[in-house]
């Protein structure tokens, strides 16, 4: 539901609905879609509410130029914060992963998957459980491995995992206590997971762990 010309508003109300672990935006009974025709979904409730609010703020006509949730500032911030991490990760593991603005994420080659799979298989089963817990926490294997390799701190990893949400709450405001508690909880969970991985791999970390390819 994206338009090149200003279209007359065809809906009465907007809403953000939780479904299968993600949030969808509805315009009356219609579900919002991306320019490629895919269902628009986000994992952040504040972001979903913000998007719904922007659509609700449209008066008689829909003007996308007045919707700023994917504005240049956010894109610049994402490139500034994430690109150095992605560059380091690709060099460290000798893989190719490109950034993407699509909801579905970038294409990952079988070769890259194979390299990362072999690396994870070099850890003990207990450590792999730690990886699973960490990835579930920050929704990123890249951030998890960066923490395990001590390239970035847990605090930095959590910040990067919440970058878009933090950007939006900077515009729309925070729910008192809720966002701070969520951030602290993620940091505690990721810290525990990374520590568990290191402890479970203590014998292999006596010397610097070598990448297995």
From TrEMBL:
GO terms for cellular component: mitochondrion. SUPFAM superfamilies: ATP12-like. Pfam families: ATP12. Keywords: Chaperone, Mitochondrion, Transit peptide. Its main location: mitochondrion. It is found in: Mitochondrion. GO terms for biological process: mitochondrial proton-transporting ATP synthase complex assembly. It comes from the Eukaryota. Belongs to the ATP12 family. This is ATP synthase mitochondrial F1 complex assembly factor 2. It comes from Timema poppense.
